[in-house]
């Protein structure tokens, strides 16, 4: 059964500045949860359709990995498709507003392993939603800084 976690935040920066925060790997690592690391599969980082990356969760004794593929890309929009202990899509969309940008993040996923699914729903779902909100707040700070100091 598919689950959806959806968050949004108003950012006082242009859609271009906000988009850079999730297409520039250096900027991305400034707002991602510190236990989450993203790296390209291959030599170069890209958010063009067909580009691959991996997200590593750096926890003691294991490093669960989500392999991702860019499946949709337009100005202001990137959609990662994940395979791993989660299967689904993570959509990042910038919508220009008179004050700046509304950033929408929609994580739609399934956890095929019933034991992992139970563990996630029992112990991690609430934390994951809160962490998504915290990441958006950190991304907002980075985007507004990038807007001021391009």
Order of helices and strands: EHHEEEEEEH
Q: What distance separates the N and C termini?
A: 43 Å
- The biggest beta sheet, please? 7 strands, antiparallel
Task: Calculate Rg over CA atoms.
Answer: 15 Å
Q: Look at the structure and give the mean pLDDT.
A: 90
Coarse structural class = alpha+beta
Residue share in helix: 25-40%
Question: Would you kindly provide a written description of the structure presented here, covering whatever features stand out?
Answer:
This protein is of the alpha+beta class and 150 residues long. It is 34% helix and 40% strand. The protein is built from three helices and seven strands. The chain has helices at residues 15-23, 25-31, 114-148; strands at 3-11, 36-40, 52-57, 65-74, 77-84, 87-97, 100-110. Strands 1-7-6-5-4-3-2 form a seven-stranded antiparallel β-sheet. Helix 2 (25-31) crosses helix 3 (114-148). The longest helix is centred in the last third of the chain and has 35 residues, at 114-148. The termini are far apart. The relative contact order is 0.23.
Identify the notable features of this structure and list them briefly.
single chain; 150 residues; alpha+beta; seven-stranded antiparallel β-sheet; 3 helices; 7 strands; 34% helix; globular
What is the fold's blueprint, element by element?
Blueprint: E1 3-11, H1 15-23, H2 25-31, E2 36-40, E3 52-57, E4 65-74, E5 77-84, E6 87-97, E7 100-110, H3 114-148
Antiparallel strand pairs: 1-7, 2-3, 3-4, 4-5, 5-6, 6-7
Helix pairs in contact: 1-2, 1-3, 2-3
């Amino acid at each position: 059964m598919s689950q959806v976690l959806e968050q949004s935040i108003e950012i006082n920066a242009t859609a271009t500045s906000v988009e850079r925060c999730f297409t520039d790997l250096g900027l991305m690592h400034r707002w991602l949860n510190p236990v989450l690391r993203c790296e390209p599969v291959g030599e170069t980082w890209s958010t063009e359709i067909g580009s691959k990356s991996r997200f590593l969760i750096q926890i003691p004794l294991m490093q669960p990995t989500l392999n991702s593929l860019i499946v949709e890309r337009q100005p202001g929009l990137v959609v990662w498709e994940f395979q791993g202990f989660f299967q689904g899509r993570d959509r990042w969309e910038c919508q220009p507003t008179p004050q700046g940008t509304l950033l929408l993040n929609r994580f739609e996923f399934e956890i095929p392993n019933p034991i992992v699914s139970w563990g996630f729903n029992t112990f991690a779902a609430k934390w994951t939603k809160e962490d998504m909100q915290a990441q958006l707040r950190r991304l907002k700070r980075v985007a507004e800084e990038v807007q001021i100091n391009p």
